[in-house]
Design a protein that fits this description.
The protein has 393 residues and is α+β, with helices and mostly antiparallel strands. It has 3 domains: 236 residues, no CATH class; 81 residues, Transcriptional regulatory protein pf0864 domain like (Alpha-Beta Plaits, 2-Layer Sandwich), CATH 3.30.70; 60 residues, no CATH class. The strands form 5 sheets. It has a 5-stranded mixed β-sheet. Helix 8 packs antiparallel against helix 9. The longest helix has 22 residues.
Length: 393
């Protein structure tokens, strides 16, 4: 399993993230090509090798023509949709911007459609976020682990005035994420950096067991009494390949006996859309013989607060049981196989005995089946046969 570890000893920002990815080996030319396709005004990524308290790193900056535009989420969505980014790169970029929109909407008491991006709607922030989405996709890791994050102390000037650190949107984005103590005067973690972490990271903790393949250092723009660096460590897990890997997730659950079936179904749909790992509805019998439903939601620890808010808003529950649990996980990878009707995406899981199991993605099979007017089961079978023919030799 390929692992990435984010060592955020000096916090994280968008330019630090992209600088570390390029320093770890990502081709800047390919990232620039994706940025160019957004149609931003004369936007160029520039990296310089610098030293921070004696340690070398790449410092990335975005050169662009001056502009005074402030964008809404739909403006940025349109840019991404019309770009040359791959589907996975588009999805990740949109996920990061959606996290930002949700945080801004929460702190300003508005909706994500009405959120008026200021700093994060500027050319340099768009380039940092989309560039990071492209670079992470190119890096191709299976699991991302991150250290606790320091935010810094003091105040920062933003479009809405002077705010205490962490800035309101940054604080909202870091809900459920472990923070590190820091007495440094200044903003170490920006909203862009927090949104990237909240969108990408699978687990927070110490450096996992791995055989290191590359290390990248991204430099922040400011100078402190410590090295203002983000370190990205990439490698292969040294865990026994035949054994299960583990991660930590959150389980949210509640019993419902006075919520309509339509409301429960709608809530489940929203939970899936918001990034839940699994949503389960189990019929049960509650007090006084009333029929009820046990709602169980599995999610990443960093997303528990957001999903809990959905459950409280959409159902009649007065309380949620919340527990952090360890999950056994099979190593897996995304593959695409070629059938008569086109490519089908699927997941390959490695079983404890070393054998591999391929499962076509339901959504991918549906698209092929609908487009070509063939049965879903026929596409599923063809995909499994294509995988067996090309991967099990």
């Amino acid at each position: 399993m390929r692992i990435a570890y984010l060592d955020c000893a000096s916090g994280i920002s968008g330019d630090m993230m992209l600088g570390a990815l390029v320093d770890a080996g990502i081709d800047l030319i390919r990232v620039q090509a994706g940025i160019d396709s957004l149609g931003l005004p004369s936007c160029r990524l520039v990296v310089d090798e610098v030293k921070k308290c004696g340690f070398r790193a790449l410092q990335l900056r975005v050169d662009h023509e001056p502009e005074h535009a402030h964008r809404h989420l739909h403006h940025i969505d349109d840019m991404i949709e019309s770009s040359s980014l791959s589907d996975s790169q588009r999805a990740l970029a949109r996920k990061i911007f959606m996290r930002l929109a949700e945080a801004e909407a929460k702190v300003h008491g508005t909706t994500i459609q009405k959120v008026h991006f200021h700093e994060v709607g500027a050319v340099d922030s768009i380039a940092d976020i989309v560039g990071s989405a492209i670079a992470w996709d190119l890096l191709g890791v299976d699991r991302i682990v991150c250290s606790p994050i320091p935010t810094g102390t003091g105040f920062v000037e933003i479009a809405h005035g002077r705010c205490a650190i962490p800035a309101p949107a940054t604080g909202e984005l870091l809900r459920g994420i472990p923070l590190a103590v820091s007495s440094v005067e200044g903003e170490l973690t920006t909203p862009t950096g927090a949104a990237i972490v909240a969108s990408l990271v699978d687990e927070f903790g110490s450096l996992p067991a791995m055989a290191v393949q590359s290390i990248g250092y991204g430099a922040g723009q400011k100078d402190f009494q410590h090295p203002n660096l983000l370190r990205l460590i990439v490698g292969e897990s040294t865990e026994d390949k035949s054994s299960y890997s583990t991660d930590k997730i959150t389980l949210l659950e509640t019993n419902l006996d006075d919520t309509t079936g339509e409301a429960v179904g709608h809530c489940a749909d929203l939970l899936w859309q918001a990034g839940a790992l699994d949503v389960t509805l189990i019929p049960n019998q509650m007090k006084k013989g009333r029929p009820g439903i046990l709602l169980q939601v599995q999610c990443r620890q960093s997303e528990a607060e957001k999903l809990a808010e959905i459950i409280f808003r959409e159902t009649t529950t007065l309380g949620l049981r919340r527990s952090n649990i360890e999950r056994l996980v099979l190593p897996r990878e995304v593959v695409r196989v070629l059938t008569t009707w086109g490519e089908v995406a699927g997941i390959v899981a490695q079983l404890p005995d070393g054998s591999r199991r391929f499962s076509p993605e339901y959504g991918s099979c549906c698209q092929i089946a609908d487009k070509n007017k063939v049965a879903l089961a026929t596409v599923d079978t063809a995909a499994r046969q294509a995988f067996a023919a090309t991967h099990n030799k």
